[in-house]
Design a protein that fits this description.
Elements (H helix, E strand, L loop, with lengths): L1 E8 L2 E6 L2 E7 L1 H4 L14 E8 L2 E7 L5 E5 L7 E6 L3 E7 L7 H14 L2 E7 L11 H9 L4 E3 L8 H8 L3 E5 L6 H8 L22 E4 L5 E4 L21 H7 L16 H7 L5 H13 L27 H21 L1
Parallel strand pairs: 3-5, 8-9, 8-11, 9-10, 11-13
Antiparallel strand pairs: 1-2, 1-4, 2-3, 4-5, 6-7, 12-13
Helix pairs in contact: 2-8
The chain binds guanosine-5'-triphosphate, magnesium ion and zinc ion (ZN).
The site of zinc ion has 8 residues, from α7.
Length: 343
């Protein structure tokens, strides 16, 4: 049968196929792989599986992905972590305050989205906490200038939800952004039946959503809720490629003297010249510099975001034999689902 992975927990995947949900294990090589991916299976993957019981099965293979949102694992430059596969849009959620609005993370996600074939949309939530619009106006203007749609929402005051629905309707969309910005709250606001867990950002560094999951929307379409990720480091982007994601800088770069100019210290650089003449926004140039730097050095993690998704399958963890896993499967699945319900 063919289905879609909706959630991954430890060595178990939930797969939706023909209107039913199956709890599946995967063939060994799909769990421990040498493909340079930390976890060859991701939520959103289309898979071929063999049903073994009424609601259980074994995943045989993963079909090719048409999009992916990836990051580089912290402390391991050679390992790609695919957060989600095959979704159309990336809704980058930030908040006006609590946590404060920063452009760095938005830029990073915009680039990861573009690189993985997803359409980025920016959502600035918690507008109710702003004293006035000037707190976020510059951010809205900057991304609208780049032709990215920007939504302004308040999940608690129910502001901007119709526009949000228009973005989500009939598409598959992944929500990403720091812990506590209100990703799960926004989804609950447009579909209360989802009943996703939400909580104030705690000082103990706890995040609320603990695993990535694919959910069906009543208005049509799918959404993927994700936990805030501590270190979102870009995967497979080289320094000289960064400018391609900043259209104005890219345009100017053709006039730089050095063919591999990264516009920081090189002589006769058209980008720096435009900056001095006020023809390029300093704010965008600073974003560019931050991304350039982050391509080599990971961003400073926020205490509240998860270090590793909890369901992460470690490459070094010993994988039990298939027979043992099958034996454990039914019992574990039932226990984990029961625990989930309690949350
Ligand atoms: N004032 C205000 N608070 C909000 C708004 N949206 C969410 N919150 C609050 O912000 C806190 C965090 O919201 P969550 O929805 O759990 O945030 P999240 O982005 O899902 O966080 P993680 O799951 O940890 O990544 C909760 O206490 C929400 O009630 C908003 O629009 N305005
Ligand atoms: Mg959440
Ligand atoms: Zn240059």
């Amino acid at each position: 049968m063919e289905g879609v992975v909706t959630r991954i927990r430890s060595v178990l995947c939930e797969v939706d196929a023909e209107g039913s949900s199956y709890t599946c294990t995967a063939r060994g090589r799909l769990i421990e792989s040498d493909t340079g991916e930390s976890k060859p299976l991701a939520v959103g993957d289309r898979v071929v599986f063999e049903p073994t019981e009424a609601d259980e099965g074994v995943i045989e293979k993963v079909l090719p992905r048409h999009t992916k949102l990836s990051r580089r694992l912290p402390r391991d430059v050679h390992t790609e972590h695919v957060i989600v596969a095959n979704v159309d849009r990336l809704l980058i959620v930030a908040s006006v305050r609590k946590p404060p609005l920063t452009a760095g993370i938005i830029d990073r996600y915009v680039i990861a989205g573009e690189a993985g074939g997803l359409e980025p949309v920016i959502c600035i939530n918690k507008t109710d906490l702003a004293e006035d619009e000037s707190e976020y106006r510059h951010v809205v203007a900057a991304y609208e200038d780049l032709d990215y749609p920007v939504l302004l929402t308040s999940a608690t005051q129910r502001v901007g939800l119709e526009a949000l629905k228009d973005v989500l309707r009939g598409k598959s969309t992944v929500l990403a952004g720091h812990s506590g910005v209100g990703k799960s709250s926004l989804l609950n606001a447009i579909q209360p039946g989802l009943a996703l867990r939400t909580a104030p950002v705690s000082t103990k560094g706890r995040h609320t959503t603990s695993s990535v999951s694919l959910l069906k929307l009543e208005i049509g379409g799918y959404v993927v809720d994700t936990p805030g990720i501590r270190e979102f480091t870009l995967w497979e982007i080289e320094k000289h490629e960064v400018a391609q994601f900043f259209p104005r800088i890219w345009e100017l770069s053709h006039e730089c003297r050095m063919p591999d100019c990264v516009h920081t210290h090189e002589p006769d650089c058209a980008v720096k010249r435009a900056l001095e003449r006020g023809e390029l926004s300093r704010w965008r140039y600073e974003s560019y510099l931050r991304i350039l730097e982050s391509v080599e050095t990971p961003e400073v993690p926020r205490a509240t975001d998860v270090e590793e998704p909890e369901e992460q399958i470690s490459r070094h963890k010993r994988v039990p034999s298939r027979r043992k896993r099958r034996q454990d499967l039914g019992r574990r699945a039932r226990r984990e689902l029961a625990e989930e319900d309690e949350e």
